[in-house]
Amino acid sequence: MELWFTETHTENVRFSIRVDRQVVSEKSKYQEIAVFDTKEFGRVLTLDGYIMLTEKDEFIYHEMIVHVPMAVKPDIKNVLIIGAGDGGTVRELTRYNTVENIDMVEIDEEVVKVCRKYLKKTSCSLDDKRLNIFYEDGLKFVRRKKNEYDLIIVDSTDPFGPGEGLFTKEFYGNCYQALNEDGILINQHESPYYSEDADSMKRAHRNIARVFDVSEVYQFHMPTYPSGHWLFGFSSKGLDPVKDLKADEWNRLGLKTGYYNTDIHKGAFALPNYVKELLKDE
Amino acid sequence: MEKLSQNDTPIHEALKKHCEQRVVHFDVPGHKGGRGNKELKYFLGEQCLKADVNSMKPLDNLCHPVSVIKDAQRLAAEAFGAEEVFFIVNGTTAAVQAMVMSVCKAGEKIILPRNVHRSAINALILCGAIPVYVDPGVNEELGIPLGMSVSAVKEAIRKNPDAKAIIVNNPTYYGVCSDIEEIVKIAHAHGMKLLADEAHGTHFYFGEDMPASAMKAGADMAAVSMHKTGGSLTQSSFLLCGKNVDSGYVRQIINLTQTTSGSYLLLSSLDISRKNLYLNGKDIFKRTVSYTKYAREEINAIGGYYAFGDELTDGDTVYKFDPTKLSVNTRNIGLAGIEVYDLLRDEYDIQIEFGDLGNILAIVSGGERELEIERLISALSEIKRIHGTTKAKTLNQVYIEPVIKNTPHEAFFAEKKCVPLSESAGCVSTECVMCYPPGIPIIAPGELITDRIVDYIRYAKEMGCQITGTEDMNVQYINVMK
């Protein structure tokens, strides 16, 4: 018997992975959560039929979402994470002893439960003492915060479904308000390649650029995401992601990473012309 | 015929059957189920075009209902507690006009609050009835017109014992209800009919702990915008009739102006929505009220904004307040309601119902998702952060007592001249001027234009309100009586 998981990347493009077995499949209040075992990518988590992470390539995503801001501002102490129910972002963050507090706001408690049980690789740090998990709407949570956080990481799903509110101008504005004066916002910024994703990317960039003083975009390779070419946003009230990089300081920490290094850091902000063009259009 | 229940949707079922039969069409509409107009079919969907058919034997005829439309109207009457229901496809405007024209003729008086929708004033233009306005009372702090107090209605009746009917807004756009039960009693004691404009009151018939619906209060007729909060398609509406109404005559009046090609998209949407409201209305409006209650609390917690509700009730001009309404006063963040409306739309992609000088109104119907309620609240918080000032907006007067010189009918059809609006004070207007929405005339035909009115219109224009009503599309000139 052959079992294949297929995700529709565009109306005309599909991406398939051979599945060994389905581990779990359930419906939460917000979405359909499923976990598969696969030969090529190890364990895979999908939400509403979209791949969120695979054991094989999640390190790329989670290292790039965490180490980039940490290398620009190594004294980050208070962090807010929106989404990130799989725990991968928390895992990377808790490697910094200097981080004192992490508030994680995940709308769907079921995702966390499933990941705790079936995705130990990413959920391993969800019991860290510095972590507080809030199961509520990110938009609502951040609205009540003023001048509190050094870093906000928006590790969201796509701009449709439960993550929709996390791509809006009002959300980015609320984040601006919740950050202290040299705070940094990192957000999942979609992909520039297929036109539908590119539209989401452009909209997100436009919304952020209208709120933040600095709004840059950086890229990384994500083999299981549509086109493999994916982006994060780096926004701040003044800090520049490349000029203010504290490379030596970060390297002295001696953290072992699989993808991130301070050269990649600098290079990731160098964008292809077509991406620059897309961002400029707005 | 077997007895129908509220689970049935006679028009919808007949239409479905018709579509399944693959009938060959040599009748109108000419798009023939979309084959004749492919772009329209792709845009609206094939099913939609297939259901867009003309009256025919199995589908009954709106002008003269004898089968499925009649059955659907019966079911609607049962659901709304009315004697008779007419399906209206020309908007609630048509229902309001039919209501007014059914009870008064040229030269007869009708008592109404001045903050009626333009459709009621237009009915007076058409039929020549004489308006007797009741001052609806104003909440000065919020700058909104309220409801008619029972004492003001009694006074109007005392001065005009020959009036034929009274119109009550149940509720107003902002959610304010008059004591309709008491006003019905007074009207009937004086031999007058009670008409209710329930354009914003569909949910009163199905929600729990709602203000009294017109039919329950014993009103004679009510115009109900099913398409506003009842879930049917835009332009579809119900005209409800109570016991002592000659429904045959009402049908004749409706047929004076209503289309003879009633849209089956609209009719079936009324049919299906009635079923949905009857079966699920209680839950839908419970969810609506929980959303608005939550939003009011959260918006008030932002500071500056005032999302008002039940605390306004005073047993008089605010007899009851519609709990589903989310009206927010914005003057203490230093912005006019219309400015907040524009910012929400232009900066945050959030479309609300309207903004006037001091308030915004968001319509919540239970069809929203929680995250959308959060977006609205967050956007309001952002607008305050970025655009707010501590200087409260000074408010212009909101209710200007009209000085009536002629009936709307006389003025509208009189010999007229066109003058610049700014120089029109002292003239009698022959047309309406209003902010749209809400569509409540600032000046109506037959009323004296005063300096205050000219100022008010100029100010509303400056703030960005969409002013409509005059023949001049730019509303710089106004037609007045010679």
CATH architecture of the largest domain in chain B: 3-Layer(aba) Sandwich
> Please, what is the CATH homologous superfamily of the largest domain in chain B?
Type I PLP-dependent aspartate aminotransferase-like (Major domain)
Shape of chain A: globular
Strand order within the widest beta sheet of chain A: 8-7-6-9-10-12-11
Give helix % range of chain B. Answer: 25-40%
Which of globular, elongated, flat, extended, rod-shaped describes the shape of chain B? Answer: globular
Number of strands of chain B: 20
Protein described:
- The complex is a heterodimer of chains A (282) and B (482).
- Chain A contains 10 helices and 12 strands.
- Chain A has 282 residues and is of the alpha/beta class.
- Chain A folds into 2 domains: 4-54, Roll (Spermidine Synthase, Chain: A, domain 2), CATH 2.30.140.10; 58-281, 3-Layer(aba) Sandwich (Rossmann fold).
- In chain A, strand 2 (13-27) and strand 3 (32-38) form a beta hairpin.
- Chain A is globular.
- Chain B is of the alpha+beta class and 482 residues long.
- The relative contact order of chain B is 0.11.
- Chain B has a 7-stranded mixed sheet with strand order 1-10-9-8-6-2-3, sandwiched between helices. Chain B has a 4-stranded antiparallel sheet with strand order 11-13-15-14. In chain B, strands 18-17-19 form a 3-stranded antiparallel sheet.
- Chain B has helices at 10-20, 38-44, 46-51, 68-80, 91-103, 118-127, 150-159, 180-189, 214-217, 226-229, 247-257, 264-302, 337-348, 370-387, 408-413, 451-463; strands at residues 84-88, 109-113, 130-134, 138-139, 144-145, 165-169, 176-177, 193-198, 221-224, 237-241, 306-308, 320-321, 325-329, 354-355, 359-363, 416-420, 433-435, 441-443, 467-468, 477-481.
- Chain B has 16 helices and 20 strands.
- The chains are: A alpha/beta (282), B alpha+beta (482).
- Chains A and B meet through helix 5 and helix 6 of A and helix 14 of B.
